[in-house]
Amino acid sequence: MNRVRQFRKKQQLSQFELAKEIGVARQTISLIESDKYNPSLDLCRRLAIALKTDLNSLFWEESK
Question: For 3, phi and psi rounded to 5 degrees?
Answer without folding.
Answer: -115, 30
